[in-house]
Amino acid sequence: MKFLFLSWTLLVPVFFQGQEEPVQIAQWTTHEIILTSLESYGNPYTEVDVWATFTNQKGDTLLRPSFWDGGNTWKIRFSPPDSDGEWQWISTASNESDKGLHRQSGVFRSLPYKGDNELIKNGLLRMSAGFRNVVHQSGKSFLVVADTPWAIPFRATKEQVEVYAKDRHRKGFNAALMMTLQPDMNAEGPDGRNIEQGFKRAFNDLSDGHINEMNIDYFQYYDSLVDILLDHEIVPVFQPVFHGFGWKGLQVLGTKVEAEEYVRYTKYLLARYGSRPAFWLISGDHDGNDPGIKESGEMLQQWDCYGQPVGLHYSPCDDYVAEWAKNDPTKHCMHYNKTHQDEDWLDFQWAQTGHGGEHQYHKVARMYDYLPTKAVANGEPTYEGMNAGQNGLGWWQGEEAWSQLMHGGTMGVVYGAASLWQWKISPNEEGWQAWTDQPLSWEGAMQLEGATYVGLVGQILKDVNMTDIQKRWDLANGQPLLAKEGELYLSFLETGGEITILNIPTTLNYHWIDPKTGNPKQIGKVNGNTFTAPDKNPWVLLIMN
């Protein structure tokens, strides 16, 4: 996607002549503008829309929605996409009589970013030219290596997220999937973090089937959690209101929410968090047809001037009717992981293979071939330790990640762990069915062996330009191979052995890398088209300049 440039004839670009020296904002950092309403509202969250138009000296114009932040305060967050711009902005409010919100204006300059955060240095995220991968605005490849701490927003403390983010960054993860609020209408417990059975409430009326009565302190605290993740170069994947199992399986709101409320909330998340690196996962664990999903995709296409990636995450019953769905008309199946496949606003599709401990590679293999092309990943493999600590343990996770990549999930890999995704406070905290659980706290689950193997995918491929790499088993006599022919080849051989690759240049170098340690075993110059692994253990073959 490209930036959304608009024509705004009422905004005359006078810029900085005769004015005080304007504030300076580094490229891709967030400039926060505060507006104060002069009128009172019964429910500011639902009653007033505010946005701002930003124009630089080149005539480039970007639109950013504003968000209510409590009392009479609205905020606009904007990241300049250039490093030498002269910007001015003007606000618009749906209530034009409120002069504190309507027709406010200001100016600032953009300048180069001099920090060392790789996310900020390379710019916000977008899709690659071939739609297979995610890249930064700089063009740098971003292979998703995601974890699923779904319950962080409503259960975790800042201190806990600091521990989590340090661990995941060190291991090689660069994204975190989150339910932005606790979605189960029938969930009960104390209104608090780090309390057994407790969770913070984002909306007072969620248990009644609505999201209109916002608790602003919830989102102010969530800001700090997002800050910690981004400071550790972990991109938030924002899921507005879950549609599948949810947190405890206690009647999720996502399948019943009013479409207007879902779109309003998704737009609020865009306003609050969309000036920094983000993914928008607008459907969670279902079929992509729930209220407000299509409308939210269309809204994001209109309002996200940075065009950050938008996608869907499906339930496992892609081409069959699951037992748990047969008597529940809200649990649709037979979606084939391709709902809205032809929509312009849709950037990626994520399969789910369920939690039975089976390696299922056919789903992403089929999705890779769907047209028009969308980026593909298995967004929910069996979480480590599901089914009372029995499923998906240890190296199972490494094999799953590398093999899903080979089968066409070239957007990246996703990991999960029982107890971590619920953010269990203690090993014996109750409230989950046995198939979802294991006797560990979130902190204990964070140290499970499998996370190390999945994180190593990110470490091994961190500096490899994976942009629009293709599934090319045809070049290797049907063996697993990703390639950008003539410049980059990547294979994963679960039991070692040989691989022969057609038409490979002798100008390249090969590396055999141990996927269990990240250490190279053999490095050399290509001098033929057959490559033999060091032994019969799992090996990654990387061939490049």
Automatic annotation (TrEMBL):
Residues 25-92 form the DUF5060 domain. It comes from the Bacteria. Residues 131-466 form the Apiosidase-like catalytic domain. This is DUF4038 domain-containing protein. It comes from Pelagihabitans pacificus.
